[in-house]
Amino acid sequence: MKEGAIVIDVGINRVEGKIVGDVEFEVAKERASFITPVPGGVGPVTTTMLLKNTVEAAKLQAK
């Protein structure tokens, strides 16, 4: 990983009963200028966009 990179971790995995991302957070945070945590990173944005797209699809189906 390039020094100063911005890391947006969108992966969701269960390891030893914990939810983790695809990026090894503790290692990446030493080189990244910014990194999203998992859980608590982009999840709310993903949920919001899924709901928005579902509402738009329902509106299109109603026409």
TrEMBL record:
Gene3D superfamilies to which the protein is assigned, alphabetical: Leucine Dehydrogenase, chain A, domain 1, NAD(P)-binding Rossmann-like Domain
EC number: 3.5.4.9
Any one GO CC term of the record: cytosol
Domain Tetrahydrofolate dehydrogenase/cyclohydrolase NAD(P)-binding: 1-61
GO biological process: tetrahydrofolate interconversion
Pfam families cross-referenced by the UniProt entry: THF_DHG_CYH_C
InterPro entries, sorted: NAD(P)-bd_dom_sf, THF_DH/CycHdrlase, THF_DH/CycHdrlase_NAD-bd_dom
Protein name: methenyltetrahydrofolate cyclohydrolase
Organism of derivation: marine sediment metagenome
